[in-house]
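Re: that chain you flagged

S.,

Sorry for the slow reply, it's been a week of failed gels. I finally had a moment to sit down with the sequence you sent. For the record, here it is as I used it:
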Amino acid sequence: MKSVQNILLFLSILLLIGLMYIALFNVYQTDDYIYSYGTRKLGLLGNIQNFYMNWGGRYFGYTINMFNPVSRDLENILPKIYPVFLFLAFISILALNFKIYFKISFINSITKGLLLFFFYTVILVSLSEHYYWITGANIYFLPIILFGILLLFYHQFQETGKKYWFYLSAFGILILMGSNEIMALILLGILTVLYFQDKSKEHKIVLFVGLAGFLLSFLAPGNFKRLADSTDIFYIKWLKRGGIFGVNTVYISFKLILILPLFIKVFERELKRIINKISFKKAIIIWAISFLPLVFTGYIMNTIGRQFENLIFFYLISFSVVMTFKFEKIKKFWPISFVIIFLPKINIFTEKYSKFNVNYNLNSILKEILYTDLKAYDREIENRISTIKNSPKDSLILDKIKTVPQVLYFDEMSSVNEEKKYVNDQLQKYFDKKYIRTK
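Prediction finished late last night. Pasting the structure tokens below so you have them in one place:
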């Protein structure tokens, strides 16, 4: 196992360096502008109310995005340093959790944190939206880091019994319930399992706090406004929901099973320690929590996308415990998994369903570093924004961005011959222009 771990550790460090290098060319994009615009126009409280009433109930995630400093960050610094901060914070929180839960040394805990960061990156559906898009990172990546902090608070409360750790845990739960719907459902499932295992006063309180935050998020008027109207008859609608639940589950299961042998091989000691402390039945119950968000996304007819990242990570960890109980021998197939994660993206589906194409990101990252002229992309975006900002005209027709990255987040505006997209609308509002298109 040691040789496998050392190889992956080396690759994990290279991966981290590569992602940090790519971040040097990151820029503000799409919703980053509209959040800043809304706060400038309505004020912070007004923008919070507007999003809650008209867009959705992510009361923490949306609020964090409203502090986006596009107008004050004239040198475009935040998009370049924020992803690096999140990478390092994620690895550090993972390392601390490994250290306190598995009682390992500082060096070993950092090693495990880097290795888990490697697998986390590999399983992402949309690396660009998750890591490099500030708006997306605050909704999908930051909550994972905060969840790691919550685990630290909970452990400290269990170990010391001190109330302030309990209050910090309750506050962390309230924050996470307002981060995104997938995280809220997973956390609610975990809190429910904890309560029925130990109906203590503290578990009852955190379940109540979690349920209150859950309802505050899910019952937001904006959520109901965004639900698409459908003219489908009743049974057709439910057939679609069942089908979406099925294909989402198949995609996640298939993608993770291919890399599970390598994951179990690398973390076999930790997994064995876990199965020595819990029963197989409990492992199944914890893994089953994964299906709550899958049922929910099926109900709202939402297919695989960036919103599934938190679910896939939880599914990987919980399912690996189940598999270690009954099928630990699959770890001997780790060389196959090792080869698979370096394969290029498998393009089977059309653009509309392209998220279902299996991609483990390593090949895409390598191509980005070797072949994409990231400096040219950064320069083109800077020139575009400078042109819009400094032009006295109300109507602008701009050149298309010629260098389009695969890993950095980018969505082009519509042209003069196309219907206006949300990207055009956001830039028009932010820069107070009547018309912006590309040639």
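What I noticed first: Strands lie at 395-398, 435-438.

Talk soon,
D.
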